[in-house]
Amino acid sequence: MENKCSSDNCCRESRESHASEWSSKKEDCCPVQTASDMWICAFHRAIKEAHVEVLKAKIHKAWGSKMDKTADAVLEAMEAQWTAMLTQGKAKMDLKEKIAKAMMEGKK
User: What is the pTM of this model?
Assistant: First the structure.
């Protein structure tokens, strides 16, 4: 059985419905209902965050050494890529300076 009402969907639908209520008929919007919806949304978010924290700890315990090795490989590759981007950026800047200097020659 599929749960069609995830916490994100409930919260988004609640915000959207209240936004339309506020824009169409401000006097009929119920602040108690709005507060209730916000608390329900906060509960769903908090329980999801608690689930994430529990899973993060378990994942790190089970796969931590593999993840550390992978993180080292990613960091090494990204450092090389970043260095290459800086070198390329400097080359482009140098080219622009040379072009500007060439264009300014003879203008005095």
Answer: 0.48
Residues 6+ apart with CB under 8 A from 21: 28, 29
CA distance between the termini of the chain? 80
Least confident of 7-11, 18-22, 46-50: 18-22
- Asked if 10 and 44 count as a contact pair (C-beta separation under 8 A), the reply is yes
Residues 6+ apart with CB under 8 A from 38: 14
pLDDT of residue 4: 42
**From CA 13, how far away is CA 21, in angstroms rounded?**
12
Q: Where are the domains of the chain?
A: 7-104
Structure tokens given for 67: 């993840």
Report the pLDDT averaged over residues 17-32: 62
Sign of the Cα torsion 6, 12, 17, 22 reads positive
Between residues 4 and 89, the one the model is more confident about: 89
